[in-house]
Amino acid sequence: MEKTLSIIKPDGVARGVIGEVIKRLESNGLKIIAMKMLKMNKAQAESFYSVHKERPFFQSLTYFMTSGPIVVMVLEGENAIAGYREIMGATDHRDAAEGTIRKDFATDIEKNIVHGSDSPETAASEIGFFFNSYEVTG
Ligand code: GDP
Fold first, then answer.
1. What is the distance in A from the centroid of ligand 1 to the CA of 110?
2. Fewest CB within 10 A of the end CB: N or C in the chain?
3. Global pTM?
4. Ligand 1: which residue has its CA nearest to atom 18?
5. HSE of 62, CA atoms in CB hemisphere, 13 A
């Protein structure tokens, strides 16, 4: 069993697709074992995305991620990291496969509805960024 961090980004919350995203996760065998809604401040967003700090879109991305509430979840399942990334689709929605969350809902390479961890190491640190051990029920 693997755990991964999922975020429904501010555009997903604002557009009212929280339920649709969760339905797709659950119907694909991903179990939600922790969940909360919160609004990040700029320092938190910069810390969360620090791996991208040299990228030209860093300021824009971290501003966007603070622009409204987000839903953060820990997902558990077999092969959850890769499996969830497949359900999300490619970063740029124009490249995303049919039926993926980003293909169906994203409007922009940045405003792409969801985040998902990309490795076991990243998943562990991203889960720890948002949740205490007693908040993760799995
Ligand atoms: P992910 O793992 O598919 O989320 O993609 P990355 O880790 O490469 O990028 C993190 C996030 O930065 C993406 O989900 C987008 O929201 C944003 N992003 C990535 N590439 C670009 C870009 O070229 N321009 C802008 N404005 N945002 C980007």
1. 6
2. N
3. 0.98
4. 110
5. 18
